[in-house]
Specification:
By secondary structure, the protein is mainly beta. It is 7% helix and 40% strand.
């Protein structure tokens, strides 16, 4: 299972999603509202219950959309070794923090967690087969 994708059809009426507790949820309706997408599920009638579903929805791997060049699922990056272009080990991707401007790789290093912007100028290569991410950080980015 993977976290909900950015495919807008995931919220079409009748679409099925899986909650982290194993419940299957069926989309009753969905609509854009400001910078968000509001979804109503069959059998969920109060706001509190609906809010408890946020961040806990999944889709089966078999139903995810095809990714474009340079796109990666967060769960595929977590656990990858991080090194610089010379092959020096930096650490391991612990999580990915999504932000409006750019995502950040939260990397566990020997000196503690470091946040590395996931932009083309810094994130130079991703090899999911080898479970390795190569970054070329500007001077000072990894300093404490």
């Amino acid at each position: 299972m993977i976290r909900i994708s950015d495919d807008p059809q995931r919220y079409a009426p009748g679409a099925r999603l899986i909650h982290e507790d194993g419940r299957e949820l069926v989309v009753a309706s969905g609509r854009s509202h400001r910078d968000r997408f509001l979804v109503r599920f069959e059998g969920v009638s109060d706001r509190g219950t609906a809010q408890d579903l946020r961040g806990a929805l999944y889709v089966p791997q078999s139903e995810v959309r095809e990714l474009g060049t340079g796109e990666y699922w967060i769960h595929d990056l977590v656990g990858c070794r991080v090194s610089d272009p010379a092959g020096r080990d930096i650490g391991v991707v612990a999580s990915v923090i999504t932000n409006p401007a750019q995502d950040l790789l939260a990397v566990d290093t020997a000196e503690g967690e470091r946040l590395i912007p996931a932009v083309r100028q810094i994130l130079v290569a991703v090899d999911l087969t080898e479970r390795r991410v190569t970054v070329d950080p500007p001077e000072g980015l990894l300093e404490a």
